Amino acid sequence: MIALLWRDLRLATRTGGGLGLGVAFFLILCTLVPFGIGPDRAALAPVAPGILWVGALLACLLSLDRIFALDHEDGSLDLLATAPLPLEGTVAVKALAHWITTGLPLILAAPLFGVLLQLPVQAMPWLVASLLIGTPALSMLGAFGAAITVGLRRGGMLLSLLVLPLYIPTLIFGAEITRRGAEGAATGTPLLFLAGITMAVLALIPFAAAAALRVNLR
Amino acid sequence: MSIWEYANPTKFMRTTNGALPWLVGAAAVCCVGGVVWGFLTPDDFRQGSTVKIVFLHVPAAMMAINIWVMMLVASLIWIIRRHHVSALAAKAAAPVGAVMTLIALATGAIWGQPMWGTWWEWDPRLTSFLILFLFYLGYIALWSAVEDPDSAADLTGVLCLVGSVFALLSRYAVLFWNQGLHQGASLSVQSGERMSAVYRYPLYLAMLGFFLLFLALLLIRTRTEIRKRRLAALQAREMRA
User: Fold this and answer.
1) What domain range is B148 assigned to?
2) Which residues of B touch A151 (CB under 8 A)?
3) Residues of chain B falling short of pLDDT 50
4) Residue B227 has what pLDDT?
5) Can you give the pLDDT at residue B40?
6) Kind plus residue range of the DSSP H or E element containing A100
7) Of these four, A179, B14, B181, B229, which has the most CB atoms within 10 Å of its CB?
8) Assigned domain for B117 exists
9) To probe the interface with A, which of B158, B160, B174 has the most A CB atoms within 10 Å?
């Protein structure tokens, strides 16, 4: 499993374009929003938590099809499927690799972009905490969507149609934590809900994703 | 005599062929009867004549949810017992469910404009219906994207299971996110009478009508799918010969 993780990380960092792309997209999105709704601090601050979360979500979506597509093209996914490691484990490791290469940079960059969007300083720790708890679920659900669409030629659009509705609960609680953090309200309840969703997703979705992969490799 | 006999496509086709005309007729009578009877009811003293849209709105909303549940059951039957008719029924039900969701949303908007003063409000019920519609769209899109019918049935089945969990999760997550404007249930099994009988009986009839309408459409569409599958099999045999 660790060897597979290192392999995926090396592939992601050395093939170029993959690693920084999500963060760059996130930056562009956060730059475009003030052009859309005006530069006022009073207008930006209330929507900043939502924009940051939606931006992170879309940036995460951008690199999803890479989770399985390349391995499916060159046949290494078939090898992985016949390897002693159960396919569920492969899915989990690949989602983890996606999280390290996409989710983690987003989390590190999010406070900087929060400054751009006038997010109050007291909300920063909550933004990072909510992303830290929420993004693993995004990567895992994305792996499920990628597993379903891996064999399709026009999978990209379909992938977003399938995956984005699944992101709704995570988005609701994640943005709620950040918003409450900005207002200085108690964040315990949404934090627990978000953690619960992430735990359930991490525990159960690998099985669904592996089932979908088996169908596509048949 | 068990329900599993209808897993045999030939048996399914023969039985539904006989039942379909009766079903279509009953659906037409109940739908038209319910809506017309509903239209002839007196105006509500606060809502005026707008209340009559309830005879379209409530049955459509009820079917929108129940069709998804039916698809979930059919997908489970396909995944566990591999009956093709079941997978095709799930496929056939999805567009009907999507249209029902759309009818519920549209009639709700038409009613909401004069009553709430807005076409749309991010109310939990409205939002979760919109989310349900998105799930229908994804499900239908996946069916049309996968070429191999068995793989498509498997993949959409898995999607339906995961989607059901997340549709339910979203339903309760949006409660957390925004408080509602939508009134509570118009009909309820436990809490007795909330609606005057003048409105209740036409509503029951319209609900029955929508259910029969769904059943008729489902059978017609499933029969089409079975015929399409047979045609594809014949063509494949032709190609090989």
Assistant:
1) 19-178+195-240
2) 146, 151
3) 191-192
4) 92
5) 82
6) none
7) A179
8) yes
9) B158
Coil, strand or helix at B48: strand
**Domain tally for chain A?**
1
Closest of A85, A65, A177, A162 to residue A132, by C-alpha:
A177
Specify the DSSP element, H or E, that contains A122: none
Chains A & B: contacts with CB separation below 8 Å: 74
Angle between helices B124-145 and B54-81 (to 10 degrees): 40
- Distance in Å, alpha carbon of A14 to nearest chain B alpha carbon: 32
Cα–Cα–Cα angle for A29, B142, B153, nearest 5°? 150
**How many other C-beta atoms can be found within 10 angstroms of the C-beta atom of residue B229?**
15
User: Considering chain B, what is the average pLDDT of its residues?
Assistant: 85
Asked if residue B1 is part of any domain, the answer here is: no
Tokens representing A191?
A: 């934090």
Please write the tens of the pLDDT for every residue from A96-140: 988 988 889 899 999 899 888 888 888 888 999 999 999 999 999
- Classify residue B121 as left (phi > 0), alpha (psi -120 to 50) or beta: beta
Query: What's the token pair of residue A159?
Result: 């992938």
For B128-142, the pLDDT digits (tens) are 899 999 999 999 999
- ipTM of the complex model: 0.86
Q: Which amino acid, residue B234?
A: L
- Both tokens of A182, joined, read 């900005």
Determine whether the interchain pair B142/A208 forms a contact, defined as Cβ–Cβ distance below 8 Å.
no
Is the pTM value of this prediction over 0.90? no
Alpha-carbon gap: A152 to the closest alpha carbon of chain B (Å): 7
Burial of A64 (0-12, 13-18, 19+ CB in 10 A): buried
* Count of structural domains, chain B: 1
Domain housing A106? 2-217
Reported as half-sphere exposure (CB side, CA atoms, 13 A), residue A108 has a value of: 11
